[in-house]
Design a protein that fits this description.
The complex is a heterotrimer of chains A (331), B (74) and C (357). With 331 residues, chain A is an alpha+beta fold. Chain A folds into 3 domains: 1-36, no CATH class; 45-149, 2-Layer Sandwich (60s Ribosomal Protein L30, Chain: A); 166-319, Alpha-Beta Complex (Phosphoribosyl-aminoimidazole Synthetase, Chain A, domain 2). Chain A contains 8 helices and 14 strands. In chain A, α2 (69-82) runs parallel beside α3 (103-120) and α5 packs antiparallel against α8 (282-288). The radius of gyration of chain A is 19 Å and the shape is globular. Chain B has one domain (5-71): Roll (SH3 type barrels), CATH 2.30.30. Classes of the chains: A alpha+beta (331), B mainly beta (74), C alpha/beta (357).
Chain lengths: 331, 74, 357
């Protein structure tokens, strides 16, 4: 069952993590790649402040409430750059188009890319277009690559968390993946839930100017809040404890989760960050992200590297990375 | 073994379908297994069917041992 | 006394087990297993209480042979399979339903009828699993198909019922179950009187809802009843459970189905614990439309799922657990289902009362 790539390898959870560790890093490690931060920090004789990232977009459907593949391919990449504190400057844009794909849809997607790039204040400076035979693609795939410059004094990484630090999330979770499931007709509910896809790079830049106490910024995309925080706990080698009743979930998203048996902690987001910070930075976070909630903290307890949650019942449980992408269930 | 969720009936549709709502999420379910429902009723829905009405009375009959326990802290 | 956490703390204080005594409670329903894990209930209980997961996870107890039957249907060009999202990742050998494009996840079985009408050239087969809560829905879908004269719809009916399985577990020689946390939503349909047969087993039970507080209340009630040697059945989920249950649903269940033997994965055949479509509706029985002889697939060696489903061992006692058996590569059924005992233990851990916290 593990001899071929399965859909689970792409779900952002444990199996993708294992694929990267077992097959990519072993062959390609070079001192930078294996850090596995969402963007890589590069250096030459003149600077060590250049950040680079890349991401591919294969979303279905292409258009959904709150966004489309064009908006995603800009947001995802500038948001990944911002996780290193970099101010996104330039993007590349590569299309793989399937023969027969409607030109009107392509135009709509490019318009959306242009609009989102403007919103994020980033320039698309190079690109590529390939076409594959009908049946060999899913309409359109997009790859973007981004580079940006990290301001002096900024040093963000998932390895920086330390006991006493607070964990914040910049807004309610689960909206993006729920909106996609609805758009895919996997859930037949009528709601106003829309994707949270948004470029947050300018807000992060503002935050970093306001306070020096930001340690980690990570976007909880595939695999959700749980997978993002598991990774931080593992990389920072510390215990994170969350308060379940502090985690913001919109009422309608919560209702969908209850109806379909989904856990919002594992649902993808495209316009939220988890932030690890010194307590002194809390006000600055609230100033830049008024909907931010402080949902937990890092402790000095043993064993290290794990993520715990105090539940609404007062019980304690362990949370791991997403194992397999969630599907609606009745049991 | 079964997820079931409380929802509120907002409209009686073409028999046996009824429109229900929960926190801004609207959908239709079958009332074939529980036909005796009115608009405003809270019902329990499992996999697209109403399976039971929810008793929303404040003063439900509770097990005496539980009442005793909670009274003990007053 | 208003907050949930405060109430739970009060209950926690009042669950008192005499030193050296161990009380074993079985939560029969898989949704309880999940909720207990998700709420971290284990971490709130004293040393002397062990919670054991029962056979009420429909995915876990679906036999390999039945999964294989579904796969045989999925491999046919002219068939569309509909089923709940729970079922599509359950492996049989190296295959699973997820691998087939003609398998559709539905929220309601009624969606199968729409699909059948939209695809008159295909046969739509609904793969139905679940207990007394879910089976009436399938009965209703079948009678609706009959009313609408839909000919290209049938169901692969793998439903099971709770009483025979519970009797088997409680009457088995080395049964050590002291009390039962009884399923809330099954009871909403069957009514609380459905459990009268348990009186013969001399085991107390409490019908329980699914939030952490309700579960803690029921654990408190059970421990008191056990220590006071009471064996009655209490209803602690009165918002939706009454004595009679949903009589319309139970009547329809009886109109469409008749009791049959059922093969429980990891346990074996339990007489009278399944539901078979009656002759009157046999045109909707996929097994009638597509006679099949699925391959016999051996249960994996060393897998303790059968004993886990009977409540006799816990997951860490199995040599596969967490090493060769994980949710990504499940060996046995209890790891396959998200509400399976092993999956719940794996995902949420066992609480932390025994560690440093």
């Amino acid at each position: 069952m593990t001899d071929n790539i399965t859909m689970t390898h792409g779900s952002g959870g444990r199996q993708m993590h294992n694929l990267i560790h077992d097959h990519l890093i072993s062959r390609l490690q070079n001192g930078i790649l294996e850090k596995l931060d969402d963007s890589a920090r590069l250096q030459n004789a003149n600077t060590d402040r250049l950040a680079m990232t890349t991401d591919s977009y294969v979303v279905s459907p292409l258009f959904f409430k709150g966004g489309d593949i064009g908006r995603l391919c800009v947001c995802g990449t500038v948001n990944d750059l911002a996780t290193s504190g970099a101010e996104a400057s330039y993007l590349s844009l590569a299309f793989i188009l399937e023969e027969g794909f409607p030109l009107d849809d392509l135009k709509k997607i490019i318009d959306s890319i242009a609009e989102t790039a403007k919103e994020a204040d980033v320039k698309i400076v190079t690109g590529d277009t390939k076409v594959v035979e009908k049946g060999k693609g899913d309409g359109i795939y997009i790859n973007t690559c981004g580079i940006g410059f990290i301001p002096d004094g900024v040093n963000l990484s998932t390895y920086n968390g330390a006991p006493g630090d607070l964990i914040a999330v910049t807004g309610s979770i689960g909206n993006h993946e729920t909106a996609l499931m609805l758009a895919r007709n996997l859930l037949k509910f009528d709601t106003s839930i829309s994707s949270d896809a948004a470029p947050l790079n300018k807000k992060i830049s503002r935050l970093l100017k306001l306070t020096k106490g930001i340690k980690t910024v990570k976007d909880p995309t595939r695999g959700g809040l749980a997978s993002a925080l598991s990774e931080i706990a593992e990389h920072s080698n510390c215990e994170i404890i969350l308060q379940e009743d502090k985690i913001p979930v919109d009422k309608d998203v919560q209702a969908v989760c209850e109806l379909a048996g989904l856990d919002p902690l594992f649902l993808a987001n495209e316009g939220k960050y988890v932030i690890v910070c010194d307590p002194s930075s809390a006000d600055a976070i609230t100033q830049v992200f008024p909907k931010a909630e402080f949902i937990g903290e890092i402790t000095d307890k043993q064993p290290k590297g794990r993520l715990l949650i105090e539940t609404v019942s007062g019980g304690l449980r362990k949370i791991g990375m997403l194992e397999t992408a969630q599907l609606p269930r009745i049991c | 073994m079964c997820l079931a969720t409380p929802v509120r009936i907002v409209e009686l549709g073409e028999n046996p379908m009824v429109a229900v709502e929960k926190d801004g999420v609207n959908f239709t379910v079958s009332a074939n297994l529980f036909p005796d429902v009115q608009i405003g009723d809270y019902v329990l829905v499992h996999a697209g069917f109403i399976i039971q009405k929810i008793d929303t009375r404040e003063a439900q009959e509770r097990i005496e041992m539980i009442n005793e326990l909670y009274r003990s802290e007053l | 006394m208003t907050g949930i956490k405060e109430k739970i703390r009060l209950i926690q204080k009042n669950i008192q087990i005499p030193l050296g005594k161990e009380i074993k409670l079985m939560e029969v329903c898989g949704t309880h297993t999940m909720s207990i894990a998700a709420n971290g209930i284990h971490s709130l209980l004293p040393e002397g209480i062990r919670l054991i997961s029962g056979p009420g996870c429909p995915v876990c107890v679906t036999s390999q042979k039945d999964i294989e039957s579904a796969l045989i249907l999925a491999r046919k060009d002219n068939v569309l399979i509909t089923t709940f999202g729970d079922m599509i990742r359950v492996p049989s050998g190296k295959d699973r339903l997820e691998n087939y494009k003609n398998v559709h996840i539905v929220y309601s079985p009624m969606e199968s009828l729409d699909l059948a009408m939209e695809n008159p050239e295909k046969e739509v087969v609904f793969m139905g699993v679940g207990f007394e809560t879910t089976a009436p829905l399938i009965a209703s879908t079948i009678t609706e198909a009959d009313k609408r004269k839909i000919e290209n719809f049938s169901t692969l009916c793998l439903h099971k019922t709770i009483p025979a399985a519970l009797e088997l577990i409680l009457s088995s020689k080395d049964s050590e179950i002291d009390g039962l946390i009884l399923p809330g939503h099954v009871s909403a349909v069957t009514g609380s009187a459905y459990y009268d047969f348990l009186q013969d087993q001399k085991t107390p039970g409490v019908i329980t809802g699914f939030d952490g507080l309700n579960i803690m209340e029921s654990i408190y009630l059970l421990t008191r009843m056990i220590l006071e040697s009471k064996t009655n059945i209490l209803n602690n989920y009165t918002t939706v459970v009454n004595k009679k249950g949903n009589t319309d649903a139970m009547e329809l269940l009886d109109i469409v189905f008749e009791p049959s033997d059922a093969d429980w994965r990891g346990i074996g055949v339990i007489p009278g614990s399944g539901l078979k479509i009656r002759d009157q509706y046999k045109q909707f029985d996929a097994l009638e439309k597509f006679p099949m002889d699925p391959l016999h697939i051996e249960e994996p060696k060393g897998c303790l799922c059968g004993l886990i489903l009977m409540g006799k061992v816990t997951p860490p006692e199995c040599r596969h657990f967490g090493t060769s058996c994980t949710p990504l590569r499940p060996v046995g059924p209890c790891m396959v289902s998200s509400e399976g005992t092993c999956a719940a233990w794996y995902k949420y851990g066992r609480g932390d009362k025994n560690s440093d916290r």
